[in-house]
Structures are given as C-alpha cells and as structure tokens.
Amino acid sequence: MTSIAIFASGSGSNAQKIMEYFDNHPSIQVKLVLSNKADAPVLLRAANFMVPTYVFDRKAFYETPQVQEELANYKIDYIVLAGFLWLIPLSLIQSYPDKIINIHPALLPKYGGKGMYGMKVHEAVVQAKDIETGITIHLINEEYDKGEHLFQISCAVEIDDTPERVAEKVHALEHAHFPRIIEDWINKASK
Ligand code: GRF
C-alpha cells in the first residue's frame, strides 16, 4: 500500500473528493490529514472517513521536527496539498523530493506566487477580463508555485462572470481531475 497525507487549511472539498476516490482503493490510501487550523472543516471531513488528523501551529511546523515525525509515524510516502496556504519548509521538501503535489486554482504561471490564493486569484482573473482560467496541478519544489506542471485544464470565463462564479467553475474542475491526477502520478512514480 502507498500512503498519502493531505495538508489542508480550510473547507477541504478537494480533500473530501480525494478521500472518496481512494476509499477502498487497491493500492493507495489516505492515511493522515494535517491542518494548521484547529477548526478547519477539513478535519470533520477526515473524521467521517475515519482518517486520523493532526493539527500543528507555526512554531511546530517551522521550528521543530514534529510534523515530519508524525508523517514518519504513519509511514507517509506522498504528500498532497489541497488548499494549504503555508510555505513548505525546505527540510520537508528535501525529505519528500518530487513527492509533494499541489493544486493551484489558475493557469500558472498566471496568477501564482505569494499572496495569490483563494478568491484573490479569481478576482484578479475577472479584473483582467481574461477569457479563460483553470487549474494547475504541480510538484512542489523550493520556489513558490514553480514546480513541474503535471496537468492543466481550462474553462471559459464569461463577460458577466463574478469572481464567485469563476470560483465555482474552478472548483468543479479541481474536484473532477485532482484525485485521478494524484493516482496517475503515484502510479508512475512508484514504478
Ligand atoms: C482550491 O481552490 C485550491 O486550488 C486552492 O485552495 C482551494 C481549496 O479549496 N489551493 P477546498 O478547501 O478544497 O474546498
């Protein structure tokens, strides 16, 4: 069995889709959900799937090996970032080389980098009058939002779309594609 851990800071609708997809999967399982927010709805979603959770604060994440120890306890092979907003420390990237995947709610390199997250991305897309946006699934390396792209898919932005409407379209793309891309990536990497 290959074990994955999901890091998420918020609602966790992507985490939910991932846990659904890998529930009873023959070779991949979600073993742990980690969050920097004790009241993040993603923790309840994990509990519904009987997936253990781990909450940490900034100090533990950046100044202690606690999170890495937790990952080691659960023998985690791959890490999925699904709406996790903190920069991953170098030590964690080095422990999981090319084994951390992230989803970004835009067509990188557009609307990436520090401060570009959540509704800020969709507001910028509407502001710029872009005719399309989409999602990027990519590996994490030492540079913010600059790891290798594994997958992109776009959707149209209509002239009267609000940022909220764009967010809905982008979320639908994320839910439809992220679990399958994670599966393909792990299958290829484990060969
Ligand atoms: C998603 O749009 C993802 O692209 C971004 O954060 C959002 C998380 O949404 N990184 P949810 O918590 O999975 O609903």
Automatic annotation (TrEMBL):
The record marks 145 as: Raises pKa of active site His. Its EC number is 2.1.2.2. GO terms for cellular component: cytosol. GO terms for molecular function: phosphoribosylglycinamide formyltransferase activity. Residues 4-181 form the Formyl transferase N-terminal domain. It catalyses: N(1)-(5-phospho-beta-D-ribosyl)glycinamide + (6R)-10-formyltetrahydrofolate = N(2)-formyl-N(1)-(5-phospho-beta-D-ribosyl)glycinamide + (6S)-5,6,7,8-tetrahydrofolate + H(+). N(1)-(5-phospho-beta-D-ribosyl)glycinamide binds at residues 12-14. Keywords: Purine biosynthesis, Transferase. Pathway: Purine metabolism; IMP biosynthesis via de novo pathway; N(2)-formyl-N(1)-(5-phospho-D-ribosyl)glycinamide from N(1)-(5-phospho-D-ribosyl)glycinamide (10-formyl THF route): step 1/1. GO terms for biological process: 'de novo' IMP biosynthetic process. The active site is at 104 (proton donor). (6R)-10-formyltetrahydrofolate binds at residue 102. SUPFAM superfamilies: Formyltransferase. Belongs to the GART family. Catalyzes the transfer of a formyl group from 10-formyltetrahydrofolate to 5-phospho-ribosyl-glycinamide (GAR), producing 5-phospho-ribosyl-N-formylglycinamide (FGAR) and tetrahydrofolate. This is Phosphoribosylglycinamide formyltransferase.
